[in-house]
Amino acid sequence: MAHEQPGQTLQATALVHEAYLRLVDVEKVQHWNSRGHFFGAAAEAMRRILVENARRRRSLKRGGAYDRRLLDERQIVLPEPGAGVLALDEALTKLAQRHPKIADLVQLRFFCGVSIREAAKLIGVSSRTADDYWAYAKAWLLREIERDAG
């Protein structure tokens, strides 16, 4: 959430609460194989919530065609609400097709906020490999997002 643009209406506490409800409020009881499995599911749930929220805010029904402004006119919110989350989601989906383990690392780091060391344990790689994955992912995602924007 710290990486989100101003105007994001979903608070971190609300995001975690919604993710928790999606993980435990199901008809069939979930059994987690490991801590990594749970964190992976939590990261995926948070990603989906943020993407759904961004899409909802961009819809015409919710005023998506208008520039959103805070009450203080000196601060202007993104012209396209949630564009960053949607662009990241598209790029992350492409990355997952090519390098699923690297995409898992990004989801854990970005959506769950875990450290490199913790993410490495959760996906089953060394800290050094996770550092390499993280450097690669940042460069790859930036290039992909810029390519789609331009």
Secondary-structure map with pairings?
Blueprint: H1 12-24, H2 35-58, H3 83-98, H4 100-112, H5 116-123, H6 127-149
Order of helices and strands: HHHHHH
Determine the fraction of residues in helical runs and give it as a percent range.
55-70%
Number of domains: 1
Low-pLDDT windows of residues: 1-7, 70-79
Give the CA-CA distance, first to last residue: 25 Å
Percent strand equals under 5%
Largest sheet data: none
Q: Averaged pLDDT, please?
A: 78
Name the shape in a single word.
flat
Q: What do you see in this structure?
A:
The protein is mostly helical. It has one domain (12-149). The chain contains 6 helices and no strands.
Based on the model shown, name its key terms.
6 helices, 0% strand, mainly alpha, disordered N terminus, 150 residues
Question: What's the quick description here?
Answer:
With 150 residues, the protein is mainly α. It has helices at residues 12-24, 35-58, 83-98, 100-112, 116-123, 127-149.
